Amino acid sequence: MHLHGHHVLVVSRNGKAVKTPWWVDILDVGANERYDVVFRASNTGIWMLHCHNLPHAAGGLVTHLTYEGLATPFRVGGHAHNHPE
Description:
Blueprint: E1 2-3, E2 8-13, E3 16-24, E4 35-38, E5 46-50, H1 54-58, E6 62-66
Antiparallel strand pairs: 1-5, 2-3, 2-4, 5-6
């Protein structure tokens, strides 16, 4: 998983606290794994969070982190001719 615009601090894996938390910008999450992460929300914007496994991303494993009060005029398929798979 990759959150644009931020680094995350890994604090637990599969419900158990990690002995030494570590900072990452990409985290390899295996099947049936769960990580708890924290990050400083200090980079205002609209940021993509997605899987780097492209078939997963194409299947919908994509979302956005949006800071309160922000909006975008962009629409999928609009004048930018962006047509995701």
